[in-house]
Amino acid sequence: MPTPLPISAYVVLGLLRRHDGATPYELDQRIRQSIGYFWVFPRSQLYAEADRLVRRGLIAERQENDGRRRRTLSLTAEGHDELHRWLATPTGAVMEIHDEGLLRLFFQDPGDAGAATSMTRLAQEQIEAHEGRLAEYDELVASGRLRPGSPQRATLEVGLRLQRMMIGFWREVAAEPPHEL
Amino acid sequence: MPTPLPISAYVVLGLLRRHDGATPYELDQRIRQSIGYFWVFPRSQLYAEADRLVRRGLIAERQENDGRRRRTLSLTAEGHDELHRWLATPTGAVMEIHDEGLLRLFFQDPGDAGAATSMTRLAQEQIEAHEGRLAEYDELVASGRLRPGSPQRATLEVGLRLQRMMIGFWREVAAEPPHEL
DNA sequence: GTTCAGATGTTCCAATCTGTAATATTGAGG
DNA sequence: CCTCAATATTACAGATTGGAACATCTGAAC
Question: Is A92 in contact with B133 (Cβ distance < 8 A)?
Answer without folding.
Answer: no
